[in-house]
Specification:
globular; OB fold (Dihydrolipoamide Acetyltransferase, E2P); 2 domains; 6-stranded mixed beta sheet; 349 residues; 41% strand; mainly beta
């Protein structure tokens, strides 16, 4: 477990593991994080470019960071993660082994990387190095990456020299375990927009969540992201529906148990749970759920208003229902839950 002191001037970093070492990138550059999906290989690229992913209609290149840093090629694992970054005008995804945490690292704990070679080349090395610093975070050492250099071709990179090397079917197939290809493919499918949306049909995106043994829907237009509960800290002197707080890339997110609003018993444990991050007024709020099952794109005729003759989803905290085959899925109204569910915290306590 990494542990450091915090200070107002500290910069936030996303910490991740790659080949038994820890690395860091500025948290503000991180757009989103996903489980590694299948990738589409491309020719005419550097060998460390693993391919591209269709991210809700945007084509995002994915870098095999291990190869970029000089490691030998290894097969991807179903446990690997895809960290999507935006640096200036560039958007790219890094393939890493495991996302660990978001930490504030004081500048005093970051040293310049060691330089080797001739003295007159040291300044050039500093400007082009993939590593911008080494952070000492007892008991660990974390390598801070230089995103500006990472997203550029090396100074001696001759265009076309690596054409086709990273994208041959043989090389690409060797990166994935055959038994896991179906899993990678399903992840890629979930990141894509549906065919109807691509051709202009009116579709409504909705996430399926599991809560208290039941399945509900949440409209994605009110959701910022989904994530795992990580290192939730208890908040003293708060009502029982506030189950803690967590640091999400520098934002302090209050975690709420909405089960009692739906006549479910209070949640006693958050380990292994998922969080639905929604924006409430000026701050992100996390709704703790058992699991996030899928994302669906529904036609307008599949949606049922709460005040319709079908009262199956007419509760106070439901916006209506959605038909799934012969079943009716109740859709949670996150705005009403946060404004009318008596979930406010008395700051004076």
């Amino acid at each position: 477990m990494l542990a450091i002191s915090s200070a107002p001037s500290n910069e936030q970093y996303l910490i991740f593991r790659l080949r038994e070492s820890l690395y860091a990138v500025p948290a503000l550059a991180v757009r989103e994080i996903h489980a590694l999906p299948a990738l589409t290989p491309l020719g005419e690229t550097a060998p460390w470019m693993a391919g591209v992913v269709n991210l809700r209609g945007s084509v995002v290149p994915a870098m095999n960071l291990a190869l970029r840093l000089g490691h030998a090629r290894e097969k991807f694992s179903r446990d690997d993660s895809l960290v999507v970054l935006q640096w200036e005008s560039e958007i790219i995804a890094l393939i890493v082994d495991e996302v660990r945490d978001v930490l504030a690292i004081p500048s005093a704990q970051i040293e310049a990387p060691p330089q080797f070679g001739q003295l007159e080349r040291r300044q050039e090395n500093l400007e082009n190095a993939l590593v911008s610093g080494i952070a000492k975070i007892p008991p660990e050492v974390v390598t801070v990456l230089n995103l500006a250099a990472l997203l550029q071709a090396p100074p001696d990179f001759p265009g076309g020299q690596f054409a086709g090397q990273s994208a041959t079917e043989t090389a690409y197939a060797a990166d994935f375990e055959a038994k896991d290809k179906a899993i990678f493919g399903e992840r890629a499918r979930r990141l894509m927009p549906p065919i109807e949306a691509q051709i202009g049909g009116e579709m409504f995106p909705m996430a399926l969540i599991k809560l208290g043994g039941e399945t509900f829907g949440i409209a994605l237009n009110g959701v910022r992201e989904f994530c795992n509960v990580r290192h939730a800290a208890a908040v003293p002197c708060c009502p029982p529906h506030i189950v803690g707080q967590m640091n999400l890339r520098g934002d302090i997110v209050t975690l709420l148990d909405i089960g009692p609003l739906l006549q479910m018993p209070p949640r006693r444990e958050t380990s292994g749970c998922k969080v639905v991050i929604v924006q409430h007024e000026d701050a992100p709020v996390g709704l703790v759920v058992d699991d996030v099952l899928d994302v669906l794109y529904l036609h307008a005729q599949d949606l049922v208003e709460a005040d319709s003759p079908d009262k199956a989803c007419g509760g106070k905290y439901f916006s209506g229902g959605a038909r799934q085959g012969e079943q009716m899925l109740c859709v949670l109204d996150t705005s009403r839950i946060l404004t009318e569910g008596d979930l406010a915290v008395d700051e004076a306590i």
